[in-house]
Hints:
Structural class: alpha/beta
CATH topology of one domain: TIM Barrel
CATH class of one domain: Alpha Beta
Oligomer: single chain
Radius of gyration: 39 Å
Distance between the termini: 75 Å
Number of helices: 17
Strand content: 15-25%
Helix content: 25-40%
Number of strands: 17
Amino acid sequence: xLAIASLLVCGFAAEPASxxxxxxxxxxxxxxxxxxxxxxxxxxxxxxxxxxSFGGPSAGPIVGxxxxxxxxxxxxxxxxxxxxxxxxxxxxxxxxADKDKNGKSKDDExxxxxxxxxxxxxxxxxxxxxxxxxxxxLYVRPDRVLEGVTVLIEDGRIAAVxxxxxxxxxxxxxxxxxxxxxxxxxxxxxxxxxxxxxxERISPSSTALDAVDPYVDARWEREVLRGxxxxxxxxTAPRTRIGGLGAVLRFHPGKLAHESAxxxxxxxxxxxxxxxxxDDVFERAADTERVLGAIADGWxxxxxxxxxxxxxxxxxxxxxxxxxxxxxxxxxxxxxxEKAQADAKDKGxxxxxxxxxxxxxxxxxxxxxxxxxxxxxxxxxxxxxVEAHSAVQIRALLESARxxxxxxxxxxxxxxxxxxxxxxxxxxxxxxxxxxxxGFYVEGAISSGGLGxxxxxxxxxxxxxxxxxxxxxxxxxxxxxxxxxxxxxxxxPKAALAALTTRPARVFDIADKVGSVxxxxxxxLVLFDGEPFAxxxxxxxxxxxxxxxxxx
Length: 552
């Protein structure tokens, strides 16, 4: 409006219009003729004539009747030679409005944009330079060993494995006597905020990534990597009843925590700690019932969702069938209605329409974020890591496993699991152990299992995983040493390697990424100068996510 009023004022200043001026326009013109607006009217511009066209003292008719056209320059074709607009034609105000200061309309700009070639999408940047690893002995998996092979790494993934694989020209080749997949600490607290350890406000939907320090000191990560540990599972609150959703992260000095995440919801954690229940056996039993009741709550929520799903499908089918019935019998129903109307008229009674009462649509269960997580756990979509040590707690866990057969339970700790080894094997419940040497200050229930527990459970057919215990963040550095101690107390090297690679990868649903040296897997490799758990063996190099992060 301001621009239009300004144009009118400037036009009136150049040449008075012959048409009557309304009081509103006159007031606007008087205001805009003030000195503050004088510069805007100083230029000679076309004036508005009464016949609906524009004109001015120094310009003839505007070519094409467009107000946005430049004035005629010297040497150009005279305006008088242009075809005159017919009487009664209106100015093309829309065209004038669509013109920019360069004289291009929006349609012209659109055509130009369409004519321009569309830029091609930028390809993702490679994760690191290609690498080749020449191994005298390669553990593809603990149960598969190859000798004299080359592993080619491109874009952070394993591109080729074999004896006939040759590294492309210019690609750096590393030599090693023994190569394995990177170790995974299935029970760690590295980079976890200390305030989160006993935070009872944690709920099932709380995520571990929110409790991890993203700017952890890179020197700590390198220290852990020197032991061959490339990934770790961390829980939001390791010492609370429900520890929220766990995550598997990489030890990578050049990346933040969320950038190195292999899984942001790898497990749900429950804790049946003896310390929280105190010395009262009844209180500990009640605490155990409350914690394991979370799985029952998730199962009930899952049943509610399934019932609603079936009820909704039945309701939709009933509506569709009724609609089809009405469509098929429309003509007959119309005749019956007309006949009923006629009968009512003859009898002098009131005609009443038949009302169709639609079945009430089923009501969906109220959405609950925490119960959604518990339902996933009860349905087996998410492994449930339950920390339990005493025989009473382990027995309660086994009862829950029999009741909720879909739940994927993992026993963590299991200091008194020896007597339940047969049942654990039958129910296929893995046991996550933290072997601790004598003399270390750790929770009594954890250390009481002994270094020989892993071997005893393995011999009974129980799937054993190894972790650092989550008591201290830097304990992940000592995980290979703890595994070596378990080997020294009867655990086979093959089982120890599986407990650090393929088993945690499978249990926590990251086996398609890490845990083995196979084509397509992300390149997490450890290069040794000897057998992994031998006393004199040293780590020579570590590749994490395709990047060479440790080189001795």
